[in-house]
Write a structure and sequence with these properties.
Helix content: 25-40%
Number of helices: 11
Family: Belongs to the peptidase M20A family.
Distance between the termini: 19 Å
Number of strands: 18
Order of helices and strands: HHEHEEEEHEHEEEEHEEEHHEEHEHEEH
GO molecular function, one term: metal ion binding
Pfam family, one: Peptidase_M20
Largest sheet: 6 strands, mixed
InterPro entries: ArgE/DapE, Bact_exopeptidase_dim_dom, Peptidase_M20, Peptidase_M20_dimer, Peptidase_M20A
Domain Peptidase M20 dimerisation: 189-296
Structural class: alpha+beta
CATH architecture of the largest domain: 3-Layer(aba) Sandwich
CATH topology of the largest domain: Aminopeptidase
CATH superfamily of the largest domain: Zn peptidases
Amino acid sequence: MNDPTALLAELVRIPSVGGSQGELLIQTRLAALMRSAGLEVDQWPLDLDALTARPDFPGMEAPRSQAWGLVGRLPGSGGGRSLMFNCHVDVVPPGELSAWTDDPFSGKVDGGRLFGRGSCDMKGGLAAAVTAVLSLQDVRPRGDVLIACVVGEEDGGLGTYALLERGWRADACVIPEPTGLAVVPAAAGALTFRLRVPGRAAHAARRGTGVSAVEKFLPVFAALRSLEARRNAAADPIFDRWDLAYPIEVGTVAAGDWASSVPGELIAEGRIGVALDEQPGQARRALEEAVAAACAADPWLAAHPVAVEWWGGQFLPARTGDEAFVKAVIAATGGDAAQWAAPYGSDLRLLTAAGIPTVQYGPGDVDLAHGPDEHVRLSEIHEAARTLVRLAADICG
C-alpha cells in the first residue's frame, strides 16, 4: 500500500481555508493526482448563483466567487455495488498564530504525528481515502469506487450539495472525518444564529443616561446556557460518550464603536445543536422562546427585544438506517470498533437524505480539530486506509 504521509504533508501545506484561493488550489492538485494515477476524473465549476438560489440550499458562510467540484472514479470490472469516499478539502482558519508551536500549515512530522491545520479535520482521512483507492487499482473490484473531494463542508455543505445536484450517487458512502477509527452512523444537526441586542449609546462618563448592550446580553447568554441544559437532559444514549450531545455556543461577540462610549448594540453569533429526529423548526423555536423569556424578565429588553436571525450553515440531524452497511464497516475494521453519534453537523445528512447509506469513519481525534497544534497520528491513517480497502472488497466485490 502506498504511504499516505507525503501526500498528507503536501495537502496540509496548501492553506485551503474555506472561501480562499487555497480551496481552489487543492482541488486542482487532487485532480492532477487522480488523472496521473489513471482514475476517471470529473472536475467542474460550481454555479454558485444557481445553487445558492435553490430553496433547499444548506447555507454558506464563507464568501466565494468561484468553487470547484471533483470526483475521481475507479471503474469496476462489472456487476458490483458502488462505494463512495466523501472527503472535504476545506479547513477553518488557523486562528491566533502565536498559539501554534510551528507554522499552522507546516505539515511537520514529529513523534509519529503530522501537524497542521486540517491534518485531523479532515485531510488525514482524505489521504487515507486516496491511498485506499489507488491501492485498489491492482485488484479492481467489480463495483465502482469513487472519491469525492468537496468544498464548503465547514460552512454548510456546498460541495456535497453540488455533487448530488450533478447526479453523483453510490450504493454506500464513508466520510473519513476524524472519529478515532470509531464508526459513526449518526450526527446531530447545527443551526447558525445571530442575536442583535439593543442598548442606548451615551458618553461613558455619563453611563447612567445610556443602556449598555453588553450588560443586557448577560441575561440572554444565561438563558442560552439554561436552554442547553434542558435540551441535553434526555439525549439519545448513542451520544453517551459526550458531555453535551447538543451544545449551544456563542462564537463571536461584537459591541460598541468607541472605548469611552456606552455600547448601543451588541451582535452575537453562535450555533445551536439539533437533536436526532428533531425538526429544525423545533430547535429554532426553542431558542427564540428562551431569548423572548429572558427579554420579558428585563424591563429594557421587554420594551426593546433582542432580534434573532438565522443565517449561514444549516445542518440537519441524520442517522443511517442501513444497519447492514454499519455492520459491514465495523467488520472491515476488524469487528471491534466503537460506535457513537457525532455532536456536530456534517455532510452525512445530505448523503443520507439522498438515499445513500453513509457512515463517518476516519483517523484523528475530533477534540484536536479547529484548535492550535492540530495533528493526526500517522498510524491511524494507515489503519484507516487498510479498512477502506477491506470495505471496498466487501461492498464492491
